[in-house]
Amino acid sequence: MKPIYIDFLNGLDIAELALSNDEILAAIEASLALQGRGEAVIEPRTHLIPGGAINGHFNVLRGVLGGDIGHAGVKVVGDFVDNYRQGLPSELAILNLLDPATGVPQAILDASAITDMRTGAITAIGAKYLARPDSKVLAHIGARGTAYWNVRLLDHLFDFEEIRVHSRREDSREAFAERLRRDLGKPVIVTHDWESAVRGADIVVEASRLNQPEPLLRTEWIKPGAFVVPYGTMSAVELSLTDIMDKLVVDDWGQCKGGMFGALRAHVEAGKLSEQTLHAELGQIVAGQRSGRQHGEETILFWHRGLSLSDIALGHALLQKARRLGIGQRLRFA
């Protein structure tokens, strides 16, 4: 058998590669178009729950991305709410890329930053197609790892006049706001409650970290014409939220319609989000097969649970750049 080598990119390598906003968005938008055209395979995520007194679980995401990318991928990401007590991120991840034709391993990447970047990019691409183009006020609930990239990439597209942030812990929301002020070069407002953040906002992103479902985001706070993105693991929205929406969009219906967790799990179980009420998957909109926002008065909701295809696409972009720049390690596998 001929030798098999794999590429290895650790967290320091990923940081050194420093993908730009446009590089991240381009990779994710291309993967969504492939999904929309049917040039991908995505399996619903599965969960591994350690049980006992441990406050967390693992998500296992799997998919195959065709086109010029040509990778199968499996990502395992932990979601452990109390990690901050040990000075650890709540989400740590690893991505394996494989040849879909032979099964030969191709690469192993630290996917913690990939998870954050691709989540923010999905939020931003969703807004590109579904939010009002003149959106000027952003409300962001939550300061988790993905929150920074939500705000950074949304602001890259919309150049907001006002950014409001809130999270449960005062220290986390203040630190989050200060990082955004430094990197975006503009003021960021810290609110001490959900309502002050959400009322009147053009784009509302709910990325809270709750231990159990609790309707903290009130439907009455959402202004007509807003774009709303709830994606917490535990639901923080009211059952009535879908009632005010003109369009309901998801990243992948296969994984949204089942499973244990998710912001709209109760809405699926109640039949408020179903194949009949669903407008489209985002990939169908990006590929031009379904309509996005058609007028300013539409109030639109986008629920994304996280696509393995996005991880694969961003992993591929990182690998390509690493090979050009000579970053990372080449390991003998067999």
From TrEMBL:
One of the Pfam families matching this protein, by short name: OCD_Mu_crystall
GO cellular component terms attached to this protein's record: cytoplasm
Domain of life, source organism: Bacteria
Annotated SUPFAM superfamilies: NAD(P)-binding Rossmann-fold domains
Entries under InterPro entries matching the protein: NAD(P)-bd_dom_sf, ODC_Mu_crystall, ODC_N
Gene3D superfamilies per UniProt: NAD(P)-binding Rossmann-like Domain (3.40.50.720), ornithine cyclodeaminase, domain 1 (3.30.1780.10)
PANTHER family reported for this sequence: KETIMINE REDUCTASE MU-CRYSTALLIN (PTHR13812)
Name used for this protein in its record: Ectoine utilization protein EutC
Organism in which the protein naturally occurs: Pseudomonas chlororaphis
Lineage per the UniProt record: Bacteria, Pseudomonadati, Pseudomonadota, Gammaproteobacteria, Pseudomonadales
